[in-house]
Give the backbone structure.
Amino acid sequence: MSLRRIAREPLLHFLLIGLALFALFDRSETAAGPERRIVVGQAEVTGLSRSFQATWNRLPTEAEIDGLVDWYVREEILYRKGVELGLDRDDPVIKRRVRQKMDVMLEESLDAVPPTDVELEEYLQANADEFSLPATVSFTQVYLGAPEATRAASALASQARAALALGKDPAELGQPTLLPASQERAPVDVVSRDFGPGFAERLQRLAVGEWSGPVSSAFGEHLVRIDERTAAVLPPLDAVRARVTREWELERRARTADSGYGKLREQYDVVVDVDRASMRIGAVASGAVRAERR
Amino acid sequence: MYARLHGCRRRNHALGLANAATLWLACTSAVTVAATPGAPEVFAAVKPGSGSGNYSPYAGRSYPTRPYFGDTHLHTAASLDAGAFGARLSPRDAYVFAKGNEVKTSTGQQARLSRPLDFLVVADHSDGMGLFPLLLKGSSEVLADPQGRKWFDMIKSGRGGAAAMEIISSFGAGTISPAIMPMPGTANYRNAWEETITAAEEANDPGRFTAFIGFEWTSNTGGNNLHRNVLFRDDGTKARTVEPYTTQSPLGSDNPVDLWKWMDAYERKTGGNVLAIAHNGNLSNGRMFPMVEAFGKPVDRQYVENRARWERLYEVTQTKGDGEAHPFLSPNDEFANFERWDRGNLDGSVAKTKDMLEFEYARSAFKNGLRLEHKLGFNPYKFGLVGSSDAHTGLAAMEEDNFFGKTTPQEPNPERIKETFVEDPRTGVKIMDWEVSASGYAAVWATDNTREALFDAMERRETYATTGSRMVVRFFGGWDFTAADAATRSPADVGYAKGVPMGADLPTAPGGKAPTFLVAAMKDAMGANLDRIQVVKGWLDENGNAHEQVYDVAWGDADTRKRDAGGKVPPVGSTVDVANATWTNTIGDPELIACWKDPSFDPQRRAFYYARVLEIPTPRWPAYDAKRFGIQPLPGTAMTLQERAYTSPIWYTPR
């Protein structure tokens, strides 16, 4: 691009005019102190009227608009003067509010480009545990009775085994129970919920297709035949796309905010100078902390 | 046929009942199926009732095969009072926790359930929904308002508890500044509702976990609890078309009749479905189950029909006490005195008087429902039963050994068994934190773990309440159950084939027959053995007076534990070591089943029947606290309990 063409570029003209204006105002401000001009335009009035409406469910009257404007002007003047006097410093409320605005800015600071399939696929693989469908087990069981009746149970076990060897229907053997006689592709966590902790893990050790046991559950002893086992499956991205996208998004926001903060943190020199012993005494007032110390 | 009975005045008979022992005739005998040492029969004589023509006994089976456990009533930081008390968990966190994941609680502790729940309803208070997150954020409209600013400063300066009390009493008095109160129509209210919906939509995982959309409508005028939780069968598309109904006029109303109108309008507008579940009649001071008038209007045909239409379930047990029965109303029921909160209304501003009790407890409401049906031709109190937590922590953690309290200050800490929950010096009403109950859950016999299937099961009342246990309970009524049915391999097959499940109506009485019931229970896979199964019967006599009777129908250790001379089954005993907070499953049985026939049936008289199942005694949550924190409880602290389940009734109506 030649120099002449650059000189003809309208954008440059704009920039130059802007710069000139900026310099002008800057000088006038330094001369007259901080900005003393308050303009209440259509945008301000619309905003005031909208928040009035949100509270009262109707539009403000003319008189009320006048009142709102007076209120707005008063707030603006007191706010500016207050800031000028440094009243915003050391106020925890204002500090928190400004910090929240910064948090939001940090989270949003990267341009929000939607994730690509490759990124989502990577995220899915990296968090396979969270998105996998659980392992399942199909099995048939014969309930031999409560745990304390061990001797009776072992007698029942050998009788039931003999009957099974003769081809008897397992659903008619052993003790009646509300436990399911068989389960088809039941997620292993559900099996543990039904039969008690550890039962599903015990089933994992049994051979497929033959009667094993007795196996202990929370209810007593069982003969068990594993009919089928399926491993945990990571579903294809399309089946869980919405969830993966959501989690990916949440993680990106957190990461972006953290790295943004990290960069800011580098610009500060932080000195922590406290007596830790005295802090701990103060913390004893909280029950939870005391509980932890026990 | 009602005309004859109309003129009868109500008389106060004492329960005109013969000794239960002489009436007890369990079909022929109760059968318990727990391993009986030396049982001669290994091979069952009874074939499972398949009856479908299929070889596979499981093919064509369409009835519910497992109960789903959940909580229909959980608050998060979005509830005004929960937030004020320090809850910081969001609806999203609440679902994450209910699914069995570990979370950090509002007091910074790590918490996890022993096993996931199957479903959850985050039911935040509609009035002021989202106010607290707004206060915490210190948004400009909150800080611009003197009241908002004051509360914000109180919370920031560590006086959140005092702020909470002020916020709650200002809410009760209707003096929260309109500038900060999120109300229907405001952006803040819309945002809070949107967050609730989004959390449920994200957590809902059909087949694995159901996240219902819901809210609590918290009518509390004068401190009298008339609260209802509203559940949506629908997804966010429909729920977004409305904003939760509130109690403050002019946009809302504290009268349940107006809530029902709102529900009706929602259904008409969207073609969706909602239901309401009331709770804590025990804190309503005689207003939960009215008989004569409600809100200045007579309890008439229109009231009773609407109530029955919209309120198919009642939350009978929760952290603020148990509402099945009261010893004053049921003096012959030795198990009626359970987790009792009967000193006043919700804020303790009015003390309880005995005349209120009749209109507060579920069993009494079932009886009065029969009376109203007799009078008006319709029964408003034909509701099923569920338990839920009403926890204000975002944590549906109602296990005695893993109890995360009702409110955030009651999350585990060494002081919680000594603190005061409610105290009003003017009325003398005082309730201690140790009286807070680690209860309960809702069990739903649904065909699948989806919003639709669970909701439909709730509508047909195929539910039972538990006080935190996950025991399995089946209850069927019919005319032809026999002792042999209690020996079957699959009680559900025969139960559905020959009868109706909990929550249903008995079909018309065949001449000369009395109703029979097949009832079975199996202990929580991680919990205590069972003490006994009871059937509670209530009925109207020829004069229109209501009566009740509790029957023991099956119990553990039956080979050595016999009825005493008075016909009562003796207590099961206790293995609880309070000092160490332990117990053993060496008494009671893991499973019980029985067939029971009503020994005093009169086909002319209305009646209802429900089952109550008791566990053997186990340590109550303060026992775990005392052990783990090494502290002495206050004198009088209840340290053991018998967890229990209450099924929805089965009703009999003469034709």
